[in-house]
Amino acid sequence: MAANRVLFFRFKTAQYLGKNSLDFLCILRRFYAQNVASAVPQKPTEISQERAAPGNEQNKRKFRIRPKAERLDIDKVDWPSFYSTASSYNSWLVPLPLRMGRSRHNKVGGLPLRDMGNIELLKIPNFFHLTPPAIERHCEALK
């Protein structure tokens, strides 16, 4: 019931201030995101060793989940299970820490673009399906 009052208050405030519906939806989304995040406990898959001081409760809750690119052991991955044929790079399928292309505005010393949404990585088909274990497996299947 209290949540409805707050939403009604925010809606009335948005109307009085002359805000459009997009601003109201942003407020509404932020409100629900705060309430849902506090109600549902999060269980991370892997926690790094960076911990805060043991006395502070708020610092205990702040932890860093390592990116999947850091957790992925490249030598132990069965690449043909990810890529059965030659295809373009998909950062959601195999998040490798790749950068390719030029930096924006030709800045000297700038980093190339990230792998997410990078057109340069989409142009080149990868050959993860032709790793030596995959070729051996394919030859055994043909015999």
TrEMBL record:
InterPro entries attached to this UniProt entry: Ribosomal_mS35_mt
CC terms in the record's Gene Ontology section: mitochondrial small ribosomal subunit
GO process terms (BP): mitochondrial translation
MF GO annotations: structural constituent of ribosome
Name assigned to this protein: 28S ribosomal S35, mitochondrial isoform X1
Source organism of the structure: Paramuricea clavata
